[in-house]
Amino acid sequence: MSRSDRSTRAMHQALPPALREAVDDFAEHLSRVRNRSTHTVRAYVTDLVSLFDHAVRMGCVDLAELDLSVLRSWLARQRTTGAARTSLARRAASARAFCAWAHRAGLLSADVGAALASPRAHRELPSVLRADQAAALVDGPTRRVTPTDNPPAADLPNTHGAPTNPARTGRAAGATSGEAAVPLRDRVLLELLYATGVRVSEACGLDVGDVDHGRRVIRVLGKGGRERSVPYGAPAQRALNDWLRRGRPAMVGTHSGDALLLGARGGRLNPTTARQIVGAYAEAAGLPRTSPHGLRHSAATHLLEGGADLRAVQELLGHSSLASTQIYTHVSVERLRAAYRQAHPRA
Predict the structure, then answer these.
(1) How confident is the model over 11-69, as pLDDT tens digits?
(2) Closest of 201, 194, 182 to residue 242, by C-alpha
(3) Do residues 121 and 86 touch, judged by C-beta distance below 8 A?
(4) How many CA atoms lie within 13 A of 16 on its CB side?
(5) How does DSSP assign 191-250, residue by residue?
(6) 163 occurs within a structural domain
(7) Which of 33-42, 69-78, 143-152, 174-183 is most confident?
(8) Is the alpha carbon torsion for 290, 291, 297, 301 positive or negative?
């Protein structure tokens, strides 16, 4: 447990029972009704505990005493202690969400957070790789892989059914050693991240049965439990073929289950390890510091620059709001401006 988590828990325990119960009930609502992730629920709880700790210091010991002045005072204190605009915007959103829920639940006589304003969060343009840089990154593992004939997708097992577990049947024919399987795993990870633009947690959460080789799509479980199908191209298919035929059977173990991507000990690949893999290959290729999210940014930008529809990119990325996708149009415009300044004689 981190120091901030311990501090939040201590403040939570020190709250009056009514406020502590309200925080716990809201957290349960977020988790069970809204189907929010553990990380999202933790962020909301941290913000609310901070708000109620401030309210108690102001003499507000009952939820019914919570009003707009307390909310504004809390945000003002956050700003004076150096909180960034993005943090202030998130905390204000947490307060508004809680107040709306508490009003619906009958805990507040009015939705006191509805009038709470917050600073517009400054959104920096994401850094993206050029197409040639992304290709160099994704091709990095191929320099460690012995070229082989890739079997057609039709020759692969039917992954819509229950996949055969090589741990029970023995190593598949043509399987390589565990050490040699690592670049095959790295290659398919990089190919999928760039080809589909999925989040690293979504890529690591894929099962073998989530891959439809015939239609070249993967079934992804995104934020809020929303499921979507995302297509991928021929290079990713070749990487998948190699990994499933030669790589995964060499790394599979008793704890592998149906996980598509495996770690060194045979369990499901951890997102932290996946980030390290991407960073290591970017460094080896002499590229700027890159993360899986950077590959996601790059995939979205290259799709739009290639003429893809904004709504289609929204669906591919799994954004619930089009506003989240529109930032990539700004990236494309910035690139256009840079090219104009460099090339036009009267720029």
Answers:
(1) 899 999 999 999 999 999 999 888 888 888 999 999 999 999 999 999 988 999 999 99
(2) 182
(3) yes
(4) 15
(5) HHHHHH---HHHHHT-BGGGEETTTTEEEEE-GGG-EEEEE--HHHHHHHHHIIIIIHHH
(6) yes
(7) 69-78
(8) positive
| pTM of the predicted protein model | 0.64
Q: Name 217's bridge partners.
A: 212, 231
The answer to whether residues 35 and 173 belong to one domain is no
CA–CA dist 221, 73 (Å, integer): 39
Specify the number of domains making up the chain.
2
Largest CA distance in the chain: 73
Q: First vs last Cα of the chain: how many Å apart?
A: 54
Q: What is the pLDDT of residues 310-337, one digit of tens each?
A: 788 888 888 766 666 666 666 666 666 6
Nearest to 187 by CA among 242, 249, 257, 149: 242
Domain that residue 291 falls in: 131-343
Q: Are residues 208 and 61 in the same domain?
A: no
Q: Cα separation of 218 and 209, whole Å?
A: 9
Is residue 175 domain-shared with residue 281, that is, in the same domain?
A: yes
Are both 245 and 313 inside the same structural domain? yes
95 and 178 belong to one structural domain: no
**Residue 256 corresponds to which tokens in the numbers above?**
């592998």
Q: Which residue has the tokens 């934020």?
A: 223
Give which of 291, 318, 114, 290 is closest to 225, Cα–Cα.
Answer: 318
The mean-pLDDT minimum among 96-100, 123-127, 238-242 falls in 123-127
For residues 318 and 222, the answer to whether their CB atoms sit within 8 Å is yes
Distance CA 159, CA 156 (A): 8
Q: What is the spatial distance between Cα 153 and Cα 241, in angstroms, rounded to a whole number? A: 7
**pLDDT (tens digit per residue) in 98-108:** 999 999 999 99
Catalytic residue list: 199, 223, 293, 296, 319, 328
Q: What is the mean pLDDT of residues 267-272?
A: 94
